[in-house]
Structure formats: C-alpha cells, structure tokens
Automatic annotation (TrEMBL):
PANTHER family: INOSITOL 5-PHOSPHATASE, TYPE II INOSITOL 1,4,5-TRISPHOSPHATE 5-PHOSPHATASE. InterPro entries: Endo/exonu/phosph_ase_sf, Ig-like_fold, INPP5B_PH_dom, IP5, IPPc, OCRL-1_2_ASH, OCRL1/INPP5B_INPP5c, Rho_GTPase_activation_prot. It comes from Myripristis murdjan (pinecone soldierfish). SUPFAM superfamilies: DNase I-like, GTPase activation domain, GAP. One of its GO terms (biological process) is pronephric duct morphogenesis. It comes from the Eukaryota. This is phosphoinositide 5-phosphatase. GO terms for cellular component: cytosol; early endosome membrane; phagocytic vesicle membrane. The keyword Nucleus does not apply. Residues 675-855 form the Rho-GAP domain.
C-alpha cells in the first residue's frame, strides 16, 4: 500500500513527499531544498496519526547511493580526496533501527536521493564524524559515494571480493531478518557487456559445477484462522534442517478490511508461528515476506547461505473480479542463489468444483502478468518462466470430478489414490497441456487435504458435504531437481485444509577457479573481434496486418530476427522523432531490446491490445491501427517495420452520450456516423430522441435482475475471459438476442463497461463537489441532479438495481459496503491519481443512494 498519503499529511503546504521507502521519506520543499525524513510507525501508515517523525537530514552534499557489502574499515581505506564516503544518512537511519528492504522500490528511493544530492564535493570534514561503527555499517549494508562507479563494483573489477562480517546476522533469536545488502546501482549493459555475458553463459560448464541444496516448500490454507497450535510437525518434519524454507499461506484473513485495504494483524501472527516452527537444529534468517490480501509467502535461508542470496524481488497479481481484486491471485519471490535464478510462486486459484476453466485462466493470467521489474526501465521485465528453477505451491483448488462423495471416501479408506488421481482435475488439465506445461509434481500417496471439519480429521459434515480433493499442491519446473518427500500433515487441525510439504534437492550452479581464466579468454577474443565487423540481421517479414481487432482481445504475431552477420549484435526498438515511446500505446514489442549471438535467432512478439485508454479514439476513428517500428542495431543500420490493421468499434470505450444516440448496435453503424455523434455537442439538434440509457447497460442489468438477483458472490467472483468476449460481441453486433455466459461473466462485463467509459457516470468536472459533500445525503442528491441527463439516468438506474440486490442479501451475501466499494470506484473516478482518503469519500457519497429504500 502507498504510504505517501499519510506522510504528506504531516508536511507543510509548500512541501512535497516524493517517495517513501519503509519509514524513510524523501521530500522536497518549495525552495527545492531536499531532505530525508525518518519516521517510525506501528502499522501500515494510512493517516498522519499512524506515523511519528524521528529525525530530519538535509541533503546538500554531492554523492551517489548504492547498496554494497563493505565494512567501514575497507571503505575508509578505499576513500580518496575525490571519493570520500559520506555516511550521515546511514547513521540516521540506523538510529531508528530501520532497514531498507530488497527490491526495485528501494533502488528507486536511493536513486531519487542520489539525484537530488548536489553542491560541494569537499567531504573530508564530514567523514570522520559520521562513519558509524563497523557493526552498524554491516547491519544496513549501504554505501554513499560521489564516484560514478560504486566502490563495491570497482573492487570487484580489481578481482577483490569484499564480504561483510555475518557475526551479527542472527542475534539472540534463531529466526531474524538478515542483512539484505547487495549491489543496487547496477550499470546498464552495453554491447560489450552483453557479449561477455552471452559467452560466459555459453561456456558456463567450463567454470561452474553443481551442488545440491535442500528446499522445504510448504503450503497451508488457514481459512482465516489465527495460529492455534505449533507448526513444528509441519515445518520440522525432516530429520535434517533444510537449507531454505519457502512457506505459503492462503486465506490468511477473510475479513472485509483485509479484502479492501490489504491490512491484517494476522500477517505478524502467522509469521511468528512460522519462525517458531522452523527446524530447531539450524538458525534461519527471513529474506523476504510478500502478501496480497490473504495470500502470503515467506522465504527463509540458513544463516550460512545468506550472503549468497542476491537480486531478491517480490511481486503480486490479483486475479479476482476485473483481474484486480486480490482475494484470488498469486504472490512470488525471485532471487539468485550463487549462479542460479530461482522463482517461487504461491497462488490461490478460483474455487468451486465446476470452475476448472476459470482456474486455468487464473494460472495463465499469473504467468503473463506477474513480472519482476529491472532497475533499468528500458529492460524488459523478467517473467516467471525466465528462471532456472520455478517452484509453484498453493491452494490451486482443482477438485476430483465425476465421482460421488461416498465413492471418493471409500477409495480413500482403501488408499486407492491412483483411481482418485486419475479423476483429479489438475492431472487431467496437465495431461491436456492446458496448464503447468513443463512442470512436474511428485507422486501423491497421501489422502486429500480438503475439506475437513475445523479442529478434526473428519470430512466435511456441513450441508454442502463437499467431495474431498487435493486442492493444495506443490510443483516444480527446471533441471537438476530431486524430490525427497511429498506429504500432508494430518496433525494440524486449525483449518478445513491440511498443510502440505515437499522437500526438494535442487542443483545450484557454483563458481570454481576456472572462472577467471574463462573470463579473461572471452575478453581477449572480444577485443580481437570488436570493430572488425558490422552487425546485420535478416527479418522474417517487415509488414504485419492485424485484421478485425476487438476491445480487450489480445492479438500477437511473431517477428523473427536471424543474426546472419559475422559478429554478435544488440538490437532495440527506438523512438521516432517527436514521439514519446517507440510505438503506439496499443502496440508492444516483446522483448523491445535484446542480444543475438552470431548465427542465433530471436523471436519478438508484436502484440496488439486495445484497452480502456486506447479504445475511445479508435472507436471514434480519431486513431487507426497504424504504426511504424524502427529496429536499431548498435553499430549497424535501422530497419523499418510496418504494423497496420482494422479495429471493430465497440460500446466499450464509447461515451454514454454517444451510445444513447445509437439505436442500432455500434458495429452496424458507419465509422463516420460514430465520429460525428462523438463530436456532436449536447445542445446540437438530432432527428431522433436519444435513448434514456445506453441499451448495452440495460441488457446487462436486465439480465442480472432476471437471473442473478440471488446469485451468491455476485460482483465478487470473476467470470471467464471467453464468455466476456461473447458478451462483448453480442452487445456490439446485436447477435444473439440474449446475452450468453454465466451470471458472474455478465456481472464482470458490466463492471468493465463502466470502467472503460471515457467520461465516468459522474463527470470529472463534478468529482471534487462529490468529495466535499459526501457526508450530506441531501447535498449528494443535489450533485446528482446536476449530472447531464443521460448520465443521471444511468446513475439512478444502477443505484436502483443495486438496492434490489441488497434486498436479497441473505442469498447473495452482498452488503452496502461491498457494493459501495466496487461501484464508487467506477462511477466516481478521479481525473488524477486517487488517494485512500478520496476513495473513502467516494464510497461514503455512493452509500447514500444504496440505503434509500432500505431504512
């Protein structure tokens, strides 16, 4: 959650909060005076009351900021009159006993501080009074230097390997956060660097060897419960302590507060339970914790391995309603251990026995949308599958199909797990290559882990009497992985699920003494080759045409580049003159830049995707599917690639006013007519009276009113992407007469429609008035009366429909808070970025219209 809003509340009017990292704030005053503010906070900072200002450090000296691994003595020895190290900020941060976490946000924070630091270069007087003790330095692991190259990088280039002391890594407790220090300011790779990197990768067998390390993977759906028992039987079930722990939870907190604000006290409770349950024969350090609502992943390592962990990043993806809500989705941590890149994913996929297609869609969404950012924004993001090893765990929610509950229980009693597994949805989907292609799951020889009566080993005795299933699974992808065990843990009874664990032995690449010799030989060969040859490539084609592009329909074609030159080459799509990016916003080249070895080939996906930001201009004809890409070779020539196509206009991304003037489906209308209606003013004369509300809104709301008034979890459970496409086509073409798809798909289609409106139901011009009068019902009604007539009709129509839903809340489990949260974000959109306080005011505004007939 962005905590800058709370920090901004503590500042004066002329002061601006630029960026927040943990409790350290980078801020600028009106006079362009930059300072670091050191805050402490007891919990997630939402308002100014949640934070306490501890110290202020003015920024007035010239330096660069990196995260390194040097002790203070080494820093002092490496310092020169032109490169004295300033550690004042480090001292201040250490006073607050705080640490900057791993990740790109910390790097962005430090780079902002570095960018603001200007003025004097004579720092010698500051040095001796500000350098902290060596132990304090190693605790945080940050260095500040005026040199354009970090001392840690310069030391490495001289062949030195400087590592900090780890004596204080694990102090009085056996399980504490370790020093997450590693180099942050990585230099951007040029062609020469990429040549060396490529040759090193090709020859890694010459200077690396495999060493196996044990990874304990655990997954547990805790059903919103607090820890009631020791986790030792689960986490310490191995005779020897594992080298790594990757522990995932689902449904950590089922409260509405956790769902809407992603804040929960149960995070600390379960983290403490995990720390206390780790193997007692080793000391562990917490590397990273990442959580999305109730999905949490913790990554621990043995103390002795901590210094070999680097490049740690964490990301989250919500796959709930509209692909955003975090009640379903995934969290992931990626890291480098020695010379192997590893990614761990913890996911919670869609529920219910018949929703296996939705689970498949969730999996694909996670794979495509979960991306780890690079420090260099021009570099393409790192996806899950671009790692040496991928470890995937979680409540995948795949069930046992085609067998009744009594027969399943009988097979479990007989331990006939093979018959059960043959009817397992995940096994069937993997066999059909619908999901988890290339992944491996160990043999299942334990009984299903869901669903039990809480506090017992008894199968579900509720009215629903669910069929037992292996919902909780662990899979892996990659070479040199050996599974030692795969089991459930029946001793734990806190939840209606049983926890599952897997112990994997993973071969990790280690460096040996031949590395230096290999590196030097590669450099000599590149020196000999450089500047002798001009790079060139052959393109598979230079013209691409995308026919009948539709709203939110992903389209892609492949451009293949073959390096037919005598030297490796580096390519990049570059901006054209007077254009902000290398392509139009509806187009993406993936990857946009890269490296091709001599004789090698690279496939680039040219992807077209029209979303809510690009649809309005395409609908009206003001923009076309047309662009020219410029592919540049470093030290070589440029190639021009033509991208064209035709876009099918859609009601999605078309204004309410225009749709009210369209009595026929939008795709039956000439493009010129749509353009004229879009540009027509409100007071222009028209031959036909406009519709009261767009027919598309009426069709969706009427369908839901007739079929889904009692539908459980309406507007909270996502629909299927394929069904949305059918609904969109029906609205745009008028065929068929009635809407296809499930109730959940129609509900999500309605939300997407409102989200895609170029001007929201409450126009941007009235947004501020809505915030100002949100506490007064009469004033809120007055603002609504000021809406343009067609907007007012839509607002009142939707509010009336939602009130009908609330009358059936006993069946559909909806309440005022849920509907206000979901719909206020769509009906009252901010023209700028909306902060948390504004979100709450918009919800308060809309609540007045949901309770009118319920009081």
């Amino acid at each position: 959650m962005d905590q800058s809003v709370a920090i901004q509340e503590t500042l004066e009017k002329e002061e601006t909060c630029i960026i927040v990292s943990f409790a350290t704030v980078f801020h600028q005053s009106k006079s362009r005076d930059y300072r670091l503010f050191i805050y402490t906070h007891r919990r997630m900072a939402i308002t100014a009351d949640d934070v306490s200002l501890e110290d202020i450090i003015p920024i007035s000296l010239e330096f660069a900021v990196v995260e390194g691994e040097q002790d203070a003595d080494q820093i002092i020895r490496d310092s020169t009159p032109d490169g004295i190290i300033v550690l004042k900020i480090i001292t201040a941060i250490l006073k607050s006993n705080d640490m900057l976490p791993f990740g790109s946000h910390s790097r962005l924070f430090l780079s902002e501080v570095n960018r603001a630091w200007s003025g004097r270069s004579d720092l010698r007087q500051v040095l001796l009074s500000t350098v902290p003790a060596a132990s304090s330095w190693s605790y945080l692991g940050l260095s500040l230097s005026p040199s354009p190259y970090p001392p840690s990088l310069m030391a490495s280039s001289r062949g030195k390997v400087i590592r900090e002391s780890r004596d204080e890594l694990v102090r009085s407790s056996s399980h504490t956060q370790f020093n997450k220090a590693h180099i942050l300011a990585m230099p951007q790779f040029g062609l020469r660097d990429n040549l060396i990197k490529c040759e090193l990768l090709k020859n890694e067998d010459l200077y690396t060897y495999l060493e196996y390390f044990s990874f304990f993977l655990g997954t547990y759906n805790v059903n919103g419960q607090t820890p009631k028992e020791s986790l030792h039987p689960w986490l310490s079930c191995t005779p020897n302590p594992p080298d790594m722990y990757c522990v995932g939870f689902q449904e950590l907190d089922l409260s509405k507060e956790a769902f809407f604000f992603n804040d929960t006290p149960k995070e600390q409770e379960w983290m403490k339970a995990v720390s206390e349950g780790l193997h007692p024969d080793a000391k562990y350090a917490l590397v990273k914790l990442v959580r999305l609502v109730g999905i949490m992943l913790l990554f621990y390592v043995k103390k002795e391995h901590a210094e070999f962990i680097s490049e740690v990043e964490a990301e989250t993806v919500g796959t709930g309603i509209m692909g955003r809500m975090g009640n379903k989705g995934a969290v992931a941590i990626r890291f480098r251990f020695h010379y192997s890149d590893i990614c761990v994913v913890n996911s919670h996929l869609a529920a219910h026995i018949d929703e296996y297609e939705r689970r498949n869609q969730d999996y694909k969404d996670i794979c495509s949308r979960l991306q780890f950012r690079h420090l260099d924004p021009s570099q393409p993001p790192l996806t899950i599958m671009k790692h040496n090893v991928v470890l995937w765990l979680g409540d995948l929610n795949y069930r046992i199909s085609d067998l009744d509950v009594d027969y399943v229980k009988d097979l479990i009693t007989k331990k006939d797990f093979e018959t059960l597994h043959n009817n397992d949805q995940l096994k069937r989907q993997i066999d059909e290559e619908a999901v988890f292609v290339g992944f491996v799951e160990g043999e299942i020889d334990f009984q299903p882990t869901y669903k039990y009566d809480t506090g017992s080993d008894q199968w579900d005795t509720s009215e629903k009497c669910r069929v037992p299933a292996w919902c909780d699974r662990i899979l892996w992808r990659g070479k040199n992985v050996r599974q030692q065990h795969y089991q459930s843990h029946m001793a734990l009874k806190t939840s209606d699920h049983k926890p599952v664990s897997s112990l994997l032995e993973i071969g990790v690449r280690m460096n040996d003494e031949a590395y230096k010799k290999t590196f030097e030989e590669i450099v000599r060969n590149i020196d000999k080759m450089e500047n002798e040859c001009i790079p060139s490539v052959t393109l598979s084609k230079r013209e691409f045409h995308f026919k009948d592009v539709k709203f939110m329909q992903h389209r892609a074609e492949t451009l293949s580049l073959l390096n037919d030159g005598q030297v490796p080459c580096q390519f990049e799509f570059i901006q054209k003159p007077n254009e902000p990016t290398y392509c139009k916003p509806w187009l993406t080249a993936n990857p946009p830049k890269g490296f091709i070895a001599q004789g090698g080939r690279v496939d680039i996906d040219l992807e077209v995707f029209v979303n809510r930001s690009t649809a309005p201009d395409l609908n009206s004809g003001q923009q076309q599917i047309e662009d020219i890409l410029v592919l540049h070779l470093e030290r070589g020539k440029d190639y021009f690639i033509s991208v064209s196509g035709n876009y099918l206009p859609s009601c999605y991304g078309t204004s309410i006013r225009t749709l009210c003037r369209l009595r026929e489906p939008i795709q039956d209308m000439p493009q010129e007519t749509i353009r004229q209606l879009t540009e027509m003013s409100d007071d222009a004369e028209i031959t036909e009276k406009p519709l009261d509300i767009p027919k598309e809104i009426w069709m969706m709301v009427d369908h839901l009113f007739r079929n889904a008034i009692k539908q459980e979890d309406l507007f909270q459970q996502p629909g299927l992407r394929s069904e949305f496409a059918e609904i969109r086509d029906c609205l745009d073409t008028g065929m068929p007469d009635s809407l296809p798809g499930s109730n959940h798909s129609v509900a999500e289609a309605l939300l997407l429609f409102l989200d895609a409106l170029p001007e929201p139901v409450v126009p941007y011009s009235l947004y501020q008035q809505c915030l100002e009068c949100c506490s007064s019902a009469s004033q809120c009604e007055k603002v609504v009366s000021m809406l343009p007539q067609c907007h007012k009709n839509v607002f009142n129509y939707l509010a009336a429909f939602l009130r009908e839903l609330l009358k059936n809340s006993a069946n559909n489990r909806l309440d005022v808070n849920i509907l206000a949260t979901i719909f206020a974000a769509l009906l009252l959109r901010s023209p700028t970025k909306q902060d948390l306080a504004e979100k709450r005011k918009t919800q308060e505004f809309f609540q007045h219209f949901l309770v009118q007939d319920l009081c």
